[in-house]
């Protein structure tokens, strides 16, 4: 009888202290998906301000993880690799972070839980230090105690809080009542996310972790396998920290897509070919080459505009253009239609004369149908007696 009692006491002591199994800090190579562009554009916006990790460092995490060929270490090694990937996948944004581990014995300074990192301003470097401080696993699984202690840790955490639990879920005491109490204490500020790091024989623990996530009403439960890839981890990070936003509208006043010197906001001709002289509206020869009343001859003073058109055609060998002739409203419609055609053809002839292939040019008249200014004043009518170039290669 005394021998049996001695054996029982020895076994209990072994369970309490746990045969500590050391963990490696050699992490897998990992290239995360970059979420910064989505955040910067406003397509994704921050919804979580703080995160606190509760990591299972009990003796069951010393067992070899066999659910994936990607890992050759213990379940604790898997947890640390996942946390490393998680740390690398978080986009740049203001956060606070913290980490607590749970088990028994020497790995937790002979306590049942251990605060590896108190709540503080998050940085990838400081959180990596917290991850590497998870040196070994030992003892039982007091997740309920860890949840209770973490509830005190996060009192200083600002804003919305993500409580992230990594474990195989094999518990001696149900942690659900403690999770429900935490939710009652923190309300909508707190969401619980769980990651099951277990083997097939730990399947019952997966249901425990699912219950914890359900208790918060806004978290979810996932598995190590689901978040080990770059995409899987990226999706996890997005779901924990971010939500869909309204993309920020580009500031057109600072953009000039066709490089003509006129901002996109003011550019009425946004596909001006390279090298074209444009007016204040960004249009090529718009209100530029004008004609006298009832005339179709090209004035000598517009030679630079014709020469510019020739140079543009040379600079853009694939460019084809439609030369559009216009008139003011004086005269009959039929006469003005013919006059506008003569004006377009006169410009076409000048371009061909200076070396532009005729097959790259078409001439069209629009008569008085498309005024750009009032026909009630001499100045307005002068602007309406014009040609415009329209590119036809797009």
UniProtKB/TrEMBL annotation:
Positions of region (Disordered): 367-394
Q: Which SUPFAM superfamilies match?
A: OmpA-like, TSP type-3 repeat, vWA-like
Q: Where is the VWFA domain?
A: 50-240
Please name the Gene3D superfamilies in this protein's record.
Answer: OmpA-like domain (3.30.1330.60), von Willebrand factor, type A domain (3.40.50.410)
Q: What is its main location?
A: membrane
Keyword annotations for this protein, in alphabetical order, are: Cell outer membrane, Membrane, Signal
Q: Which residues form the OmpA-like domain?
A: 278-394
Q: Kindly provide the name given to this protein in its UniProt entry.
A: OmpA family protein
What species does this protein belong to?
A: Methylomonas fluvii
């Amino acid at each position: 009888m005394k021998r049996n009692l001695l054996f029982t006491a020895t076994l209990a002591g072994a369970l309490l202290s746990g045969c500590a199994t050391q963990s490696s800090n050699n992490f897998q190579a990992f290239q995360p998906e970059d979420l910064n562009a989505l955040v910067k554009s406003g397509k994704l916006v921050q919804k979580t301000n703080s995160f606190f990790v509760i990591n299972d460092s009990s003796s069951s995490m010393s067992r070899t993880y066999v659910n994936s060929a990607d890992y050759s270490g213990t379940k604790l090694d898997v947890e640390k690799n996942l946390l490393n990937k998680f740390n690398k996948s978080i986009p740049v944004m203001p956060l606070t972070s913290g980490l607590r581990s749970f088990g028994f014995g020497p790995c937790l300074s002979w306590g049942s839980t251990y605060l590896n990192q108190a709540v503080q301003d998050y940085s990838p470097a400081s959180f990596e230090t917290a991850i590497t401080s998870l040196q070994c696993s030992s003892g039982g699984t007091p997740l309920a105690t860890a949840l209770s202690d973490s509830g005190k840790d996060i009192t200083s955490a600002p804003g919305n809080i993500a409580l992230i639990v990594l474990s195989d879920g094999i518990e001696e005491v149900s942690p659900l009542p403690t999770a429900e109490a935490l939710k009652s204490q923190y309300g909508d500020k707190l969401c619980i996310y769980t990651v099951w790091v277990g083997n097939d024989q730990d399947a019952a623990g997966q249901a425990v972790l699912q219950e914890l996530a359900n208790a918060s009403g806004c978290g979810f439960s996932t598995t190590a396998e689901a978040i080990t890839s770059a995409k899987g981890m990226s999706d996890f990070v997005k779901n924990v920290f971010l939500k869909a936003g309204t993309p920020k509208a580009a500031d057109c006043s600072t953009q000039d897509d066709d490089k003509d010197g006129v901002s996109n906001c003011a550019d009425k001709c946004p596909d001006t070919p390279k090298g074209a002289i444009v007016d204040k509206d960004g249009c090529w020869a718009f209100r530029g080459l004008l004609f006298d009343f009832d005339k179709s001859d090209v004035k000598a003073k517009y030679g630079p505009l014709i020469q510019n058109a020739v140079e543009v055609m040379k600079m853009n060998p694939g460019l084809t253009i439609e030369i559009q002739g216009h008139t003011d409203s004086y005269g009959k419609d039929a006469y003005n239609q013919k006059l506008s055609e003569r004006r377009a053809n006169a410009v076409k002839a000048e371009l061909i004369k200076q070396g532009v292939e005729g097959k790259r040019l078409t001439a069209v008249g629009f008569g008085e149908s498309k005024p750009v200014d009032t026909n009630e004043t001499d100045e307005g009518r002068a602007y309406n007696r014009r040609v415009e170039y329209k590119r036809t290669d797009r």
